[in-house]
Amino acid sequence: MKRGLLLTTFLAAGLLLSWWLFESPSVAQGRAHLDHLRSSGLLGGPRASVELGAVRRIVPVATRWSAPSEPFWWAELTGPDGSAGYLAWREGGDRQLIDFSLEGLVAIDLPPARALGGVPPIQQFAIKGADGAPVASGCVPTAGASLIAFWSNRGTYDWQADDSHEGLVRRVRDRLPMSVIADVEGYADGKMALAGCFPGALAVGLQEDADQYRIPVRVSVAPFRPETLAEELAAGRPALVSCVVLVPRKPELAWGHEVVAVGQVEIAGARFVGVIDNFFAPRLPGTIRWIQAERCSSLVLVRPVK
Q: What's the CA gap between 79 and 102, in Å, rounded?
């Protein structure tokens, strides 16, 4: 009896040791990505104790904005205060990091990374559509409102004109030819209708708004280039970026999106753009989300008139 109990104890201890010594390849890859973030300086200070949490395999769902693609891995990050962000990386090939966020990282100025702080993290909200049914405020006007509020908060321009954040979104939205898009994929809870608009129309609407409030800026659209964004950031100017990204709460889905670009960083040879995402509610408001630069397609630039 004692011999059997002892053997069982040894076997259990051996299995535990084997699990500890030979963790799964996906967990090992996640830890390697965390090491890359540490070496880039993004996990310093209060994020130094961030660790890998639950890891799961995601099978993407093809949508109107994304073709079928290979599965990838998604890992939650944990820290002393609970949720600390997430990582996503490719399953095959180079297993490259494709998307991540670190709770509390709201600005950074290091040799390999730069990110501006101070962009209000306005989130999309429901409004009443023409038929009375709820529809999302839309990423395009919401991102535009965040940029206007940034300049107003800095005291550079009185562009917000005393509007609340919600009022500012509605003001920008009213200038745009918004389209209502049925949520057949289930992006929003309850399948609330989505709303979209093209970046060119956003640039026109922001210029009209600036002209009405006598704000001396010129708004333009440009193809996304890392060098162009770097010039804007060096001058202290966020930009608006069009991209295709994973939906944070439902990463099996991806969609076309408009967000505020506030930073850039290179991780293990790949370039990432730091954004304030208006459909991403982190634990700590203002936390930057980092997406692969190759997922970005255009920029809306707001530059002072000299």
A: 10
Domains of the chain are 25-105 (3.10.450)
- Alpha-carbon torsion angle 173, 174, 176, 178, nearest 10: 70
199-211 average pLDDT score: 98
For the record, the structure tokens of 254 come out as: 């991806």
The amino acid sitting at 172 is V
257: Cβ–Cβ under 8 A, 6 or more apart, which residues? 139, 242, 243, 244, 245, 277, 279
Q: pLDDT band at residue 129, thresholds of 50, 70 and 90?
A: confident
Predicted structure pTM score = 0.90
Q: Which token pair is 285?
A: 């408001």
Write out the H or E segment, with its range, that includes residue 255: strand 250-267
* Cα angle 231-275-138, degrees, rounded to a multiple of 5: 120
Q: If you ran DSSP here, which 8-state letter would residue 245 be given?
A: E
- Residue 210 three-state SS: helix
* Rounded alpha-carbon distances, angstroms, from residue 300 to 145, 166, 225, 261: 13, 21, 12, 10
Residue 179: Cβ-neighbour burial (10 angstroms; 0-12, 13-18, 19+) = exposed
* Structure token pair of residue 13: 């201890």
The residue written with tokens 């202290």 in the block is: 236
Q: Which strand (E) or helix (H) includes residue 154?
A: helix 139-154
